[in-house]
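User: Show me a protein chain along with its predicted structure.
Assistant: Here is one chain, sequence first, then C-alpha cells.
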Amino acid sequence: MLETLSVRNFAIIDHIDLSFDAGMTVLTGETGAGKSLIIDAISLIAGERANSEMIRSGADKAEIVAVFSAGGDRLAAILDKYRIESPGGKINIRREITAKGNNPIRVNDTVVTLAQLKEIAARMIDVHTQFDSQRLIDPANYLDLIDGFKPDVTARYRLAYLAALATYHASLGAFRDLVKAKDELAGRLDLYRHQLDELDRFGLDPDEPKKLLEERDLLANFDKIDASLREAKRLFDETALLENLYDAGSELERLASFGEAFARRKERVRDAYYELDDIKNELDKALRELDFDATRFTAVETRLAAIEELCRKYKKTIPELVDLRSERAAAIDRNDNFDEYLDKARAARDVAFVDAASRAAELTTVRREIAKRIETELMVVFGELCLPGTRFSIVFSGDAPTDPDHADVFLETGVDRVDFLISTNLGEPPKPLSKTASGGEMSRVMLAFKSIFVKSQDLSAIVFDEIDTGISGIVAKQIARKIKSVSAACQVIAISHVPQVVAAGDRQIHVTKRETKGRTVADAATLSFEERVTTIAEMLSGMKGSAAGIASAQELLLNM
C-alpha cells in the first residue's frame, strides 16, 4: 500500500507531506484547493507522463516521492527482472520534473524508464480518473478490460496467438512474393541466365583474391625471401644453436633433484629445443620448395586483373558476387520449378493459417469464460449499488477465419469484437453501454468494474478521483458502502464531494489553499473527528455552524 507521499514545488503545492494507512482515506476540499494535484502526483508515481508546466513558478524542479510497502510475488518478479532490491519490503519511487525536460525516475535509487515504472506501479496501485469512465464507454477498450481481469492468464494466450500470427504473416508474405516474383522474373530471365553462366564459368571463390595476392607477393619478392631463409638456416647451423640448447637442458637435468624450480627450467629449455628444432625443419623445407615460376607469376597477375574487371563490371565484391550467383540460381530454379515452390509456399501458408486461427480460438474461449465471470460478479455488485433490475452482458462477435489468403480478420488483439450491453430499467432490452448509461449510472458501473478488478489484479492500493459524481441520497450511501468494502481488501484513496462517501472513510485529509507573500499555496491536513464533523456538516447544509448539519454529520460518521 501507499504509506507516504511527499510533493515539492508542484503547481500551487509548495510542499506537502502526507501519510496514509490501510483502509479508506478521503480527500476533501473546495474546488481548486489542490485535491486533484495530489491525485496528479500519485498518477505520476504510477507512470503518467510529466511536463515542465507542472513545476511551481519560480522553482527549478518539482519532486514527488512515494513510499509503498512491497506487494506480492508478481511485483517481486518485476523488481527482480530489473535488479531492483526492496530492503525492508519498501518501494521508494522518486520522480523529478525539470524545466529542461531531464526528468529522472528512480525506484529504490535505481534509475528506471517511464515504461518500467508503469510496469512496476501497475502491480501496486490503480488510479481511476474521469478518463477511465471514457474508456469504459469506448468499445475499442473492451478487450483490454476483459484481458485485464485475468492478465496473467490472457497474457499467455495472447503471446501464443501473436507468435502464431507473426508466422502466418511471414508465410503469407512469402507466398504472395513468390506469385508476384513469377511475373516480374519473366522479363529478366534471359539476363539472369546470362549472368549465372558467366559467374559459373568464372569459378567464384570468396577466398581466392586473398590467396592470389599472397602468392603474388611471394613470387614478386623471391630474392628477398630466399636470402632471409638462407641466413636463418646459416645461423642455426654455424652457431650450433640446437646443440648448445640441448646441452644446457642436460646440465639443468642434473640439478632437477635439488628443487622443483630447476626441474621446471629444465622442462622449459627442452620445450624450447623441440620448438626450435621444428622451426629449423620448416626452414629447410621452405628452402627446398622455394622456386620462382615466371609462368605462374604471369597467371596470377592475369587472374587478379580478371577478378578486378569482373568486380568493376558488376560493381560488387567477390563475396557479393557469390551471393548474387546464388540469388540468380535460386530465381531461375524457382521459375523452372514454379509449381513445386508454389505448392510448398501455399502449404506453409495454410499450416500457419490453421495455427493462427487455432490460437485465436483458444484466446476467444478464455475470454468468453472470463466474460461470464465478469457478468456474474457485476450482477451481484449492481444489486449492492441500487441497480437491482440491471442486466449486463458481454457480447462477442467477429468473423471466424476461413480464407488463408485474407489476413484482415486477424488483429493484434485476436479475432474478437466485443460490446458491453446494459439495461438499467426492467423490461427494457440491453443496449450498448456507450449509448445508454447516464452520468450517475456510469459512476456506479465504473465502481462495479473497479471493485471486481481490484480483487482479480491483487492490487494493494486504488485511487478514485470523484467516482461518485452525479449521485446523492440512498444511492450515495450504497456507493459509500461499496467503496468502503473495497477498502477491506485494498487501500482506497478517494476524492469526494459526497458527504456519505466522506463519512465512510477511515480518515479524512482536507486540502485548502491560502495566500502568503503574494503566492497561492495548497496545504493538506488529516482531520480529527470533530474537524470531520464540521466539514461534513458544511457539505450537508451548505453553511457553517448549522446545528442540523452537525447532527447529521455526526450520525453519518457513527453509522457509515
